[in-house]
């Protein structure tokens, strides 16, 4: 269910974009669709009534039997395979279109591609993709144009594996050793290995069941990592490992006892301090470990306290603190390293402004750079640490996404940013903070026929039923768009964890835009598009606002002429899949089809069972069903519990058997119940990747196979021929 996996359906396709020479202006008017294989009988799941009681209320779950934590139950696996076979049979007439879309999508991805090198501890690091290789090759060199040393070759390492993911890697401070983590199951249970960079020798040290993060102490012999519980998948224990010893002998240096918290690691730019980060949706904190002392005792930066969230950046003998203390939308403060726990010594650097939300910061030699959002519009601010002057970094697009990337050194006045918009491919810029001059280091390669000027983006506001104005970012191809209610609409939403989907470039969306679709991102409550309160108004007892906002955005776009009401499509994944499930129950008549990827749909049952992975870490987002009021509220919107006898849109549902966030049995149960209850003849397709998890297939090309199926299905329903 997480868990900060935000924007799954979009995040996995933030690659490059182009238009191939077959595409420019596609048919926008409905065509007579071919018939799919609707005569195939969908699978019917057996019913085994199972009673779940709480607070005097008893629910009967006919499909509880589908839960198998071992993922070996023959009946479960058989039913999933039957669903896969059914979906394949239904979509068989669209195989040619699906293959064409797949080739179209991967043609936008350069076969040979390299990242912009970044410098860390005397070496330049870079990532390569080569030819048909699915996985990255990580290299480093002593000079930008020097000879490369291959650190990790993902393609070779993935040989023989149906799933493969490199979690992270970190060179030792003396640059001789490499610690790295690998997952071959897609449960995000990473195994850490250590290798000699010069010789390639992989040491015997093997650290299993970790979160994937690993950091070195400065003695070049000590590693810090977090171990996950294999059942709950919570990472609550921070261990210290000495090279050459057994994992069983590792020292537990910190244990998070509050199961609502997530734990992660980091390290200061100067390499002197290792950070243990603690967070839930209401509070956060940091614990410090002296990286120069292999036996250091962790010490709190500042005690964790209710409703206080903060993060830190070290700068010399000071820390800069992004904090919501007496500042709902955050402010930036400064404190000396030797007095962090005395908040009376914290000095305000950037004052709180209730109209401006500050989300992240970067501290360099003479400048503090931070992301600020006002009325949903992002800007990057640069403050001089010498005189306090403030300047805005100029950008070309009025609506865009940007973030800090590759800023591994503090002794520079150049900040590197990631930048993209709905019409601008992902780009890497170096910004000289003295002059605000920007240098484009790379823009993701675009095909010969792509022209950003062919597309138009907009930001508009729609009115929710309670009068709130909901921002919407949308994009369309100028030559195929008419604001007369004739264009098909594809609407994406998420709306949880305060995660904000800023307008960005999604290469696969071009396949829709060039065929006349309007693509819209609904910035609904539960995100932080309009600040912290926007998030608070879409969580816990306010969660219903997330769903009604999405519905009201759809209605608003139809009313304003952006959408053909007979051709409206919606998509969401993970917590966005919960959104899709709720919307399907609440307003099925609005949507032609809905795609729900790895959807968190069995809210009450999952949140009532602390043994289900990551459940307890979600109490501050959804509530704890042990509390009667919270139980009843969650029950009122839980998609699985609210399935009813009614017509539903066409549904395209996906999951991964090994999903670590939303367990496969949630969508499996939901689909079974929908088949039993729905009163229409619309198609319900359920596809399980038997090898993957929450993020889908692991390869850079392979992940598009499922997306091509979805788009072919949507185009068919929209009456658009390829």
Give an overview of the whole structure.
The protein is α+β, with helices and mostly antiparallel strands and 722 residues long. It folds into two domains: 8-18 and 449-692, Rossmann fold; 113-443, 7 Propeller (Methylamine Dehydrogenase, Chain H). It has an eight-stranded mixed β-sheet with strand order 31-32-34-33-35-36-37-38, with helices on both faces. A hairpin with a 6-residue loop joins strand 28 and strand 29. Helix 7 (544-559) crosses helix 8 (575-586). The longest helix is centred in the N-terminal third of the chain and has 18 residues, at 74-91. 49% of the residues are buried. Mean pLDDT is 93; it is low at 1-34.
Summarize the structure.
With 722 residues, the protein is α+β, with helices and mostly antiparallel strands. It folds into two domains: 8-18 and 449-692, 3-Layer(aba) Sandwich (Rossmann fold); 113-443, Methylamine Dehydrogenase, Chain H (7 Propeller), CATH 2.130.10.
């Amino acid at each position: 269910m997480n868990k900060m996996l935000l924007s799954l359906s979009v995040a996995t396709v933030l690659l490059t974009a182009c238009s191939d020479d077959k595409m420019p202006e596609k048919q926008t008017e409905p065509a007579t669709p071919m018939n799919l294989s609707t005569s195939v009988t969908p699978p019917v799941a057996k019913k085994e009534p199972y009673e779940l009681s709480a607070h005097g209320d008893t629910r009967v779950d006919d499909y509880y039997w589908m839960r198998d934590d071992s993922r070996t139950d023959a009946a479960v696996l058989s039913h999933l395979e039957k669903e896969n076979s059914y979906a394949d049979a239904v979509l068989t007439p669209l195989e040619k279109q699906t293959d064409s879309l797949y080739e179209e999508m991967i043609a936008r991805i350069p076969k040979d591609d390299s990242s912009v090198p970044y410098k860390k501890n005397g070496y330049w690091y870079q990532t390569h993709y080569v030819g048909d290789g699915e996985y990255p090759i990580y290299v480093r060199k002593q000079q930008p144009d020097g000879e490369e040393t291959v650190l990790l070759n993902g393609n070779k390492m993935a040989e023989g594996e149906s799933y493969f993911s490199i979690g992270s890697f970190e060179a030792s401070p003396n640059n001789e050793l490499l610690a790295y983590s690998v997952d071959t199951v897609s449960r995000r249970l990473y195994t850490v290995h250590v290798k000699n960079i010069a010789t390639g020798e992989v040491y015997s040290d093997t650290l299993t069941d970790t979160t994937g993060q690993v950091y070195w102490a400065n003695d070049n012999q000590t590693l810090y990592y977090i171990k996950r519980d294999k059942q709950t998948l919570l990472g609550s224990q921070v261990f210290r490992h000495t090279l050459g010893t057994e994992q069983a002998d590792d020292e537990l240096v910190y244990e998070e006892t509050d199961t609502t918290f997530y734990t992660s690691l980091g390290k200061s730019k100067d390499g002197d301090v290792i950070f243990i980060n603690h967070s839930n949706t209401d509070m956060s904190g940091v614990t410090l470990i002296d990286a120069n002392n292999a036996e250091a005792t962790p010490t709190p930066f500042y005690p964790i306290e209710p409703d206080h969230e903060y993060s830190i950046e070290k700068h010399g003998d000071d820390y800069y603190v992004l904090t919501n203390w007496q500042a709902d939308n955050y402010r930036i403060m400064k404190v000396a390293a030797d007095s962090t726990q005395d908040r009376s010594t914290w000095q305000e650097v950037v004052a709180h402004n209730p109209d401006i939300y500050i989300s992240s910061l970067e501290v360099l030699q003479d400048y503090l750079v931070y992301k600020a959002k006002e009325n949903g519009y992002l800007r990057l601010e640069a403050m001089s640490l010498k005189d306090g002057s403030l300047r805005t970094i100029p950008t070309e697009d009025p609506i865009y996404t940007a973030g800090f990337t590759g800023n591994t050194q503090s002794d520079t006045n150049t900040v590197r940013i990631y930048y993209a918009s709905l019409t601008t491919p992902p780009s890497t810029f170096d910004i000289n903070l003295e002059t605000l001059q920007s240098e484009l280091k790379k823009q993701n390669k675009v095909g010969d026929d792509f022209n950003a000027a062919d597309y138009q983006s907009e930001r508009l506001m729609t009115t929710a039923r309670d009068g709130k104005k909901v921002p919407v970012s949308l994009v369309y191809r100028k030559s195929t768009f008419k604001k007369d209610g004739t264009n098909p609409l594809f609407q994406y939403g998420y709306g949880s964890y305060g995660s904000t989907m800023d307008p960005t470039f999604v290469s696969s969306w071009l396949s829709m835009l060039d065929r006349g679709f309007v693509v819209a991102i609904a910035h609904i409550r539960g995100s932080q598009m309009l600040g912290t309160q926007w998030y608070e108004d879409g969580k816990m007892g306010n969660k219903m606002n997330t769903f009604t906002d999405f519905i009201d955005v759809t209605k608003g776009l139809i009313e304003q002429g952006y959408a053909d009401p007979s051709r409206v499509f919606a998509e969401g994944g993970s917590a966005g899949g919960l959104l899709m499930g709720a919307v399907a129950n609440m307003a099925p008549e609005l949507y032609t089809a809905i795609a729900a990827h790895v959807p968190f749909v069995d809210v009450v049952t999952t949140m009532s069972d602390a043994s289900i992975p990551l459940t307890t870490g979600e109490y501050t987002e959804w509530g704890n069903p042990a509390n009667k009021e919270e139980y009843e509220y969650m029950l009122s919107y839980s998609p699985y519990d609210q399935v009813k006898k009614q017509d539903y849109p066409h549904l395209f549902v996906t999951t991964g058997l090994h999903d670590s966030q939303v367990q496969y049995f949630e969508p499996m149960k939901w689909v079974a119940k929908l088949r039993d209850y729905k009163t229409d003849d619309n198609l319900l397709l359920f596809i399980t990747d038997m090898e993957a998890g929450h993020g889908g297939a692991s390869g850079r090309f392979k992940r598009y196979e499922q997306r091509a199926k979805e788009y072919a299905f949507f185009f068919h329903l929209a009456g658009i021929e390829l």
